[in-house]
Structures are given as structure tokens and as C-alpha cells.
Design goal:
Length: 252
């Protein structure tokens, strides 16, 4: 039977406020065969409460990677799956855990993937959610849908382990771009749009969210990133030549 490569799956907890949740999440991970934990600016870590709640998953806590930004936490990742308890005005595709986990396993056969969880009180910020190519919503009682962070990690880890029992990889020629390659494109795109005056009548933040969603659906490859960035560079160069000609002709 094919055994999925769970070593390529990292669990990312952003701005966790209670250290006990970090320990409980580590325990949930270990019971389902996940090893790699990444923490973005936790309020308190290391902490005795985290160790106490880990109850045997101390190795995951000891090897946890501490990061100061989400981009640092997602370095090298080709697929980020963000967990959300609420529907957003502008968001990427929202899937159920059982629909999403086979996609995670497929990417993890060759590449690094991330399961991204937000802070306990409010979940992922819009900025964090925009870094994900796929959002997952855990079905819950609509009258009380707030799930404890560690419990959410346990549910997702279980769904991943359950999907792994029947998973068979499919041949895939796609070589997805990494998180930092996509972010490089988005920064280049935003800068270019400012330079050519595109945002004069648009809401820049909202427009960039829509563009992120568009590119998330496209699942760009590195060569495609290079093509698009080449177009952006030529656009900026051409725009600069037009401005210089205008200034020369009208002596501005």
C-alpha cells in the first residue's frame, strides 16, 4: 500500500495566545503522524503549560520552528491550506476537510505544504487568508461554530490521516511555484499597478485580494511566474519612456 509523505506537511499556528493550545496541538499532530510544527509569534513559548498539554509529544515542541512573519513560516511551500470558521467577502475556494486533504497529500508527494491556523479569538486575518490557495471550513453547529484551536488541529490531522489510508497519487506534470515566488510576483504586480496609475479609482487592498484569488486558482509554475514578471518589467519600462517623452515634449 502506498504510504503518503507526511514529512512534507507542516502545521503553522499564527499568533497563538495560550501555550496550552500549542501543547495540545502538538499532541494532536503526533497521534496522526505529523511532525513539523511552525509557530508565528506565539504569546508564550516555550512554556510549562505547552509541555504539560503535549503529554508525550515533547519532541514536536522541541523541534518547533519559531517565525516572526507568515512569509517566513511558508517559505518553500507550494500549497497553503488555511482554516476558516467564517465566510469572507473575498476569498479563495472554500472546501470541506475531506475534499481538501487528498489535495494536500497529492502535493506532499513531492513538495512542502502547510496547514495554516489562525489565533484563538479571531482565526486567520484577511492578510493571512490571502496567502492560502485553498481555505477549509470544518462543518459545525451554526449556532455554536467556535472550535478550540487544538481541537481544530485534531480534526484536520485526523482527516489527513484518514485520507492517507486510501490515497493513491496521480501522475502530475505540474511544478507549482513556491510561496516566495508567488509573493515576489504579487509585490511586483502591486508596485507596477501603482506606477502605471491603475489604483487611482480602485481600492488597492481589495483589488489585490481579488488578484491573489485569481492567481491562486491558476496555480502558477515558476516559468509562468517569470513570464508574468517579465511583462511587468517591460510595462514599467514602457511607462517610464512615455513619461520621459511627455516631459520632454511639454517641458514639464
Amino acid at each position: 500500500m502506498y504510504k503518503p509523505n507526511l514529512n512534507n506537511v507542516r502545521v503553522v499556528l499564527s499568533h497563538t495566545t495560550h501555550p496550552g493550545n500549542i501543547g495540545a496541538a502538538a499532541r494532536a499532530m503526533k497521534t496522526m503522524g505529523l511532525k513539523h510544527l511552525c509557530l508565528i509569534n506565539p504569546s508564550r513559548f516555550p512554556d510549562p503549560q505547552a509541555t504539560a498539554m503535549a503529554t508525550g509529544a515533547d519532541d514536536i515542541l522541541q523541534n518547533a520552528v519559531l517565525c516572526s512573519t507568515i512569509d517566513e513560516a511558508l517559505q518553500g511551500v507550494v500549497l497553503t491550506v488555511g482554516m476558516t470558521a467564517r465566510m469572507r467577502d473575498i476569498s479563495n475556494e472554500v472546501a470541506s476537510p475531506w475534499d481538501a486533504m487528498p489535495k494536500v497529500l497529492q502535493e506532499a508527494t513531492m513538495h512542502s505544504v502547510a496547514l495554516l491556523f489562525g489565533t484563538e479569538m479571531s482565526g486567520l486575518t484577511n492578510e493571512e487568508a490571502s496567502r492560502a490557495q485553498l481555505l477549509v471550513n470544518i462543518p459545525a453547529n451554526p449556532e455554536f461554530s467556535s472550535l478550540n484551536l487544538a481541537s481544530a488541529v485534531q480534526v484536520i490531522a485526523y482527516e489527513l490521516a484518514a485520507a492517507a489510508q486510501v490515497f493513491q497519487p496521480t501522475a502530475k506534470a505540474l511544478q507549482p511555484a513556491t510561496h516566495e515566488q508567488v509573493e515576489g510576483l504579487m509585490e511586483h504586480l502591486e508596485k507596477t499597478l501603482y506606477e502605471i496609475g491603475f489604483f487611482t479609482t480602485q481600492n488597492p487592498e481589495r483589488m489585490m485580494q481579488r488578484l491573489r484569488r485569481l492567481y491562486a486558482r491558476a496555480r502558477l509554475e515558476p516559468d509562468e511566474i517569470n513570464i508574468l514578471r517579465g511583462i511587468l518589467s517591460l510595462t514599467t519600462e514602457y511607462n517610464g519612456r512615455l513619461k520621459a517623452r511627455y516631459q520632454q515634449e511639454y517641458d514639464v
